[in-house]
Amino acid sequence: MHRTIRFEPVNRGALWTKLNLTTAQLAQLCDLTTRQVSYWALKGYLPRSPQNTERFNGDAVDMCMLIKQAMDGGATLSHAAQMASTYLADEARRQPQMSNFGPPALLDIYEKLTGVEGTVRMVRELIEPQLPVRDAALAVGYAEEPPGAQNPAPGTER
Fold this sequence. Notes:
Layout (H helix, E strand, L loop, with lengths): L11 H7 L4 H8 L3 H9 L15 H15 L4 H18 L8 H25 L5 H7 L19
């Protein structure tokens, strides 16, 4: 008997942040020497893992790869690190944290938000008639009391 298995995309962004690499592992992964990785980290160019400040997560892999590309292109280490940081910051501004979510997760979030919006609308419709007229007007977005409003809240008479 065969069951149909439906795979969902691997959330690589979430896995990337959970990496906990040693200096040697990072160096091997990025085709660098351990001396280069140690020096770049000492200079503050490589972010450390939040779980263990002696290790590196995927953000350090990104930095190593980009610094290496820039240096292979002729940039100095400090300029390469600056270019890599700028590139990653620009990339994050274009799609902040969206790389952590695959299409199935985004669809799920969208559907949940849509459901919440409907529930919030229904609760507001239930609450609004129970508010004093002045408060209800403010709650639905009037800048001032609507014409003919009565029953001002105590202490708010003009």
